[in-house]
Amino acid sequence: QLTLVESGGGLVAAGGSLRLSCVASESISEFVAVGWYRQDPQDPGDQRDLVATLFSGSGATMYGDSVKGRFTISKDNAKKTVYLQMKDLTSEDTGVYYCAVWNPGRNFWGQGTQVTVSS
User: Fold this and answer.
1) At 22, which helix (H) or strand (E)?
2) How far is CA 62 from CA 12, 27, 54, 109, in A?
3) What secondary structure letter does DSSP report for 78?
4) Local structure of residue 48 (DSSP, 8 states)
5) Which of 20, 26, 38, 86 reaches 20 to 30 Å from 71, CA-CA?
């Protein structure tokens, strides 16, 4: 069973930057896509919103509208790690960030890392 462990979250002032990391317990190179989602733990009804996705075959990326131009997703297959570089953070970026990897019928999620942006 593959496991994903996120790190790099924390408290940051508005306008600041953070880099999240997601380390997998085994190779992620064969997964079709990897990505990051965000959820507001203060809102029980809040769904996980797409932050960024990277498609392994093409290298194409997709971002949520609110983070375009500010966040960058990347991965290092040798290190079995997915990254999310975040800059120009605002209070709207606050939430729990989850890493995920996908293959048809085989998806895995991490436990999340909290990001809090103070205004």
Assistant:
1) strand 18-24
2) 25, 22, 7, 18
3) T
4) P
5) 26
